[in-house]
Amino acid sequence: MRRFLSLFVLLALTWVVAGAQKIEPVFSTEGALQYVRIQFKTGEAFLQDNGDGQQCRTAVFAKQGQTFALIGNKDAFVLRSDKGNYVTMSSNNTHIGSTADKSKAIELALIASPGHAGCYEITKKDDKSKGFNQWGGAGAGKQLGFWNAGDPNNPLYFVEPGYQPP
Question: pTM of the predicted model, to two decimals?
């Protein structure tokens, strides 16, 4: 009985640790979209598309609005959510939002996150000194903007689109 219990605990811990496995970023074309989840390292919240004209925020796991296609390559891409919206700057030009109008999508780039092995930062294509940042701390419900690369609220990684939390 004791061995059975030990084996059960070991398997349960393996399942929990294997939760949101990091994957390498997957780039798409308009004709062949491949989606990933984008999860921030600090706070472990996911990037969330809240709808056309709304600000993107961080959120706990959800089935819709949290998978994104990186259309292009690491030096020049746009983000398109499973809702069909593109990441843009919101109307106040400070925070990150979403739009159904592809012509308003911001061109982005992907860099290795300074000091955070295995993590990335999403920057503007023409300004790699600032990355997506969870404003005012980390976790669910945070507004997103750009802040100096290397900030602890910037690092993120990519997760399989079919990931389900334990």
Answer: 0.85
